[in-house]
Amino acid sequence: MPSQTGWRRLDAAVVGGGIGGLCAGIALRRAGHKVTIYERSDFVGEVGASVSCAANGTRWLHEWGVDIEKGDPVLLRKLINRDWKTGEPISVYDLDDYEEKWGYVYNMFHRQYMHRMLLDCATQDEGDGEPVECIDIDTEKGIIVFESGISAKHDLVIGADGIGSAVRGIIGIKPERKPAASSCLHANVDTAKARELGLVDYSQDSALEYWGGQKEWNKIVLSPCNRGSLLSYYCFFPREKGDYANQKWDAESTVEELLAPYPDLDEQVLSHLRIGVEVKPWRLWVHQPYDWWHKGVACVLGDAAHPMMPHQSQGACMAIEDAACLGIVFSKKHFAGDVSSALKLYERTRKHRATRVQAASARAAENIHERIGES
Questions:
Q1: What is the pTM of this model?
Q2: Which three-class secondary structure string do you get for the chain?
């Protein structure tokens, strides 16, 4: 594409309508561009896991005018590390001054509610249409070709299509990856049901709570969401106790599989897990940083650009920051008309930070005290 001078309104395509894709759509709309989001899923089967949105993500939700209350968040108040066997607090880190220190609160969302919140902000209408699959993109001309043979031409193409990204492969990135040393099963627990059974009501803590994770693979992470009505459990254990790295994304597991690795776990947590629902494996792969994120008028963001291990709870925030950066580089203040040059600036701005967080998230698998370095 020839070099152009002066801001111009772009016809942008976002491939993937998850958290990162919707944020990219919002950011580019706020920057004055026309945006079409291509998504094959209706999200009815979306995993009902919690999503952490620290201050570095929350600030952009405010910047874009997202109605955060629609996401039914829990505000993080504490970090609690508990004894693996007894459940007694080993340490409690109070976060009452979090907003004062960082400028914004730390929200914990239910993924489906967060998606709906962002969708409302981006489009206000989900719309009709049959699912499509992205097969090929002309990265120089911005042409998307779908399985049906229908094609669409855009000035800018953003791949927000997740860890299995088609766009990433189309722009020539071949991931170097290996299975993580740990496996993870996720489960949800209804807080009201736990109360009825006389179990501990962890929702009252408004906390991220941890059992284990001290230089070992056994770790339980509890995150409340939906204003505390749902408790989201992430259960990690050595891969030799259960290998889910190659499971299908929509695979289901059983409560028996969930309990098996933890014969000596705190009985209160075990009692919660026994009433867990939506038990699903979380495929864990460690990706090396990619050499580039864009080609021509196409780029990737979020998990398509820097798949994260979950141990720093920064995956959503990094996708939000990517989207915010795209909104800035294509803003009237900074965009001079050349899409490829703007994408080079996006990559140069984001790649160093995101890959640092990516590396720290992998290290944190063995040490819950690992710092991300920048926030």
A1: 0.90
A2: CCCCCCCCCCEEEEECCCHHHHHHHHHHHHCCCEEEEECCCCCCCCCCCEEEECHHHHHHHHHCCCCHHHHCCEECCEEEEECCCCCCEEEEEECCCHHHHHCCCCEEEEHHHHHHHHHHHHCCCCCCCCCCCEEEEECCCCEEEECCCCEEECCEEEECCCCCCHHHHHCCCCCCEEECCEEEEEEEEEHHHHHHCCCCCHHHHCEEEEEECECCCCEEEEEEEHHHCEEEEEEEEEHHHCCCCCCCCCCCCCHHHHHCCCCCCCHHHHHHHHCCEEEEEECCEEECCCCCCEECCEEECHHHCCCCCHHHCCHHHHHHHHHHHHHHHCCCCCCCCCHHHHHHHHHHHHHHHHHHHHHHHHHCCCECCCCCCCC
Give the distance, in angstroms, between the CA of residue 375 and the centroid of all CA atoms in the same chain. Answer: 16
Tokens at residue 224, please? 């409340």
- The bridge status of strand 207-212 relative to strand 78-82 is parallel
How far, in Å, CA of 351 to CA of 369, rounded?
24
Within 10 A of 230 (CB to CB), how many other CB atoms are there? 24
Q: What is the pLDDT of residue 41?
A: 66
The residue extents of the domains of the chain are: 11-41+131-175+290-363, 57-69+76-108+181-283
pLDDT of residue 128: 28
Band of pLDDT at residue 369, cut at 50, 70 and 90: low
Question: In the prediction, which pLDDT does 38 show?
Answer: 87
Q: Considering the chain, what is the average pLDDT of its residues?
A: 88
pLDDT of residue 224: 96
Superfamily of domain 11-41+131-175+290-363: FAD/NAD(P)-binding domain (3.50.50.60)
- The residue among 10, 53, 16 whose CA lies nearest residue 29 is 10
Q: Is 129 left (phi over 0), alpha (psi -120 to 50) or beta?
A: left
Q: pLDDT tens digit string along 190-239?
A: 999 999 999 999 999 999 999 997 767 899 999 999 999 999 999 999 88
CATH code, residues 57-69+76-108+181-283? 3.30.9.30
